[in-house]
Amino acid sequence: MKETSDTLLTKYERIAIHLDEKDKRIWCANEAISLGWGGISKVSEVIGITRKTILKGVKELKSQEKVEENRVRKKGAGRKRAIDKDKELEKDIEICVESSTRGDPESPLIWTSKSTRNISNELNKESHRTSHSMVSRILIKKGYSLQSNKKTIEGGDNPDRNEQFEFINKKAKEFQSKNIPVISVDAKKKENIGNFKNNGKEYHKKGKAPDVNVYDFVDKEKGKVTPYGIYDLSQNNGWVSVGISSDTAKFAVNSIRSWWNELGIKSYIDAKEIYINADGGGSNGSRTRLWKTELQILSNELDKIIHVSHFPPGTSKWNKIEHKMFSFISKNWRGTPLIDRATVVNLIGNTKTKSGLKIWARLDENTYEKGIKISDELLNSVNIKKEDFHGEWNYIIYPKIG
């Protein structure tokens, strides 16, 4: 009998790597039938496949029942997936990785610095809900990619960098639960207007691709545009002001004003506060005086408390607007020359995603003066309160009475 066991195991190990679940079931069933009485128990013991599975294979062989092509089980067979039994699983996985995600501005791919095993362990603290392999499949479906340590160390080495991400995430979740707007803001890179090459490809008849200028010298008449975006994390929609002047703090705040007047007020009619997530530099930088004084003007106009959190220096790719909105705008207009301002506005406004993202865009034809100096006296008049944790990154601006 030992000789039979060794022979059986050797035969199985020789081909097992080439078999899928259905093939293994049928092979074991065939061997069990060949062995005769006790064959099912013997094959189960030697190969390690359950009697129930082998019995199923025997039944299939005897009835000549055939599984549909490209399937290993009949439709509907097998255990229900965790994602089908636990309707909150996808949502809870995204919550787990929310504070540890970032994106490439030119790609809709999202990166996460948490491993699938750590995420599954976190989800399984109270009861078993899922495996690390299921977490991996769900994250891939959602557009996530696990990156190596080299890529997750981005810019700066402030010891409180990760704590700042957690601070922003916690406060954003708290505000969203109270239906207070949480917006991610930033300026997209400036774009040349004219018949210039735009990276990417689009379909044309063979040999009929549009001709574009060889050199990217700025067209003095058409100039450049700066898209400044506001992404609403709760509503999954966005606003883009396409500026034709300088990218200044005044332009940035006016873009937020436009978002509120066109979109925000409709979704948050009773909100008394707004929470802004912004990069640490540029027109909305944490050290930009004009940014704070303009926010004070906006706070007074709207009669709303404005909370601001900045991402630490060198970590702009963690800003949600980068991979939740800007990446899809770039994808939508790739390969299309931005021949005029109307084309830019239309392409941005026609950007949509499977997740339901909608974007509204409008040309901002105002002229914004560069180099405006804000005196200490004017800065000190801002009704600002710094948070206990990194007040230079996190602060609150209150409306001024009178």
User: What is the CA–CA distance across the termini?
Assistant: 98 Å
Tell me what portion of residues adopts beta-strand conformation.
5-15%
How many discrete structural domains?
A: 3
Q: Helical content, roughly?
A: 40-55%
The helix/strand series, from N terminus to C terminus, equals HHHHHHEEHHEHHEEEEHEHEHHEHEE
Structural class: alpha/beta
Largest sheet: 9 strands, mixed
CATH architecture of the largest domain: 2-Layer Sandwich
CATH topology of the largest domain: Nucleotidyltransferase, domain 5
What is the tally of helical segments?
Answer: 15
* Quaternary organisation of the protein chains: single chain
Report the top-level CATH class of the largest domain: Alpha Beta
Question: Runs with pLDDT <50, length 5+?
Answer: 104-109, 148-153, 200-209, 211-217
Q: pLDDT average, as an integer?
A: 81
Query: Any idea what the radius of gyration is?
Result: 29 Å
CATH superfamily of the largest domain: Ribonuclease H-like superfamily/Ribonuclease H
Total number of strands: 12
Form type = elongated
